[in-house]
Amino acid sequence: MHASISDVIADTAQNSIEAGAKHVTVSLVEDGSTIAVEIADNGKGMDEATQRRAFDPFYTEPGKHDKRKVGLGLPILKQICEECDGGLSLKSEKGVGTTLKYHFAAGHIDLPPMGDVAKMVLTLFNYPGDFELVFTHKKGGGEYTISRSELSDAVGGLESVEGLSLAGEFLASQEEALS
After folding, report:
1. If we measure between CA atoms, which residue out of 145, 151, 153, 144 comes closest to residue 178?
2. Which domains does the chain show, CATH number per domain?
């Protein structure tokens, strides 16, 4: 099981990147009673048969994992949602993209902790490939939105230790401002 909500977000957003998306949006909304996540991409999408199988723990997309015949990400997410009085929806169209929405009751006793959102975003931004990722976090009355390209430009690139350090500090300051 995932150790935190941030791990869940990273896992599901990584699926979009691995699906060849050139544009991914990730939205995290905490309104006090609910934690809601939406991930939308313009990746390769899924046909209806694949969408039906996506929640089967004994299924993974052929060729996605060399030595693994199972795909536990979405089945575990579904279980967490159900255990925490939440829900999820998956909408996808082959050749167009995918939108995954999920939410949890914020005060549920079985809800994993939020984890380090700033580090999760930095990890996603630093994932290899040619893609744009836009992350939005709304909490209480505050919010911020940052794109991968915007942050990379501001810190002089995410390839250097200095750039990563500056990016991490910036993201941490944005998260702290929401507290």
Report:
1. 144
2. 5-178 (3.30.565.10)
The one-character DSSP state at 113 is P
Q: In 3D, which of 130, 129, 133, 131 has the Cα closest to residue 167? A: 133
Which helix (H) or strand (E) element contains residue 125? Answer: helix 117-125
* Tens-digit pLDDT profile for residues 110-154: 999 999 999 999 999 999 999 999 999 999 899 999 999 999 999
Residues 16-46: pLDDT tens digits? 998 899 999 999 999 999 999 999 999 999 9
Supply the pTM of this predicted model. 0.90
106 in Cβ contact with 32 (< 8 Å): yes
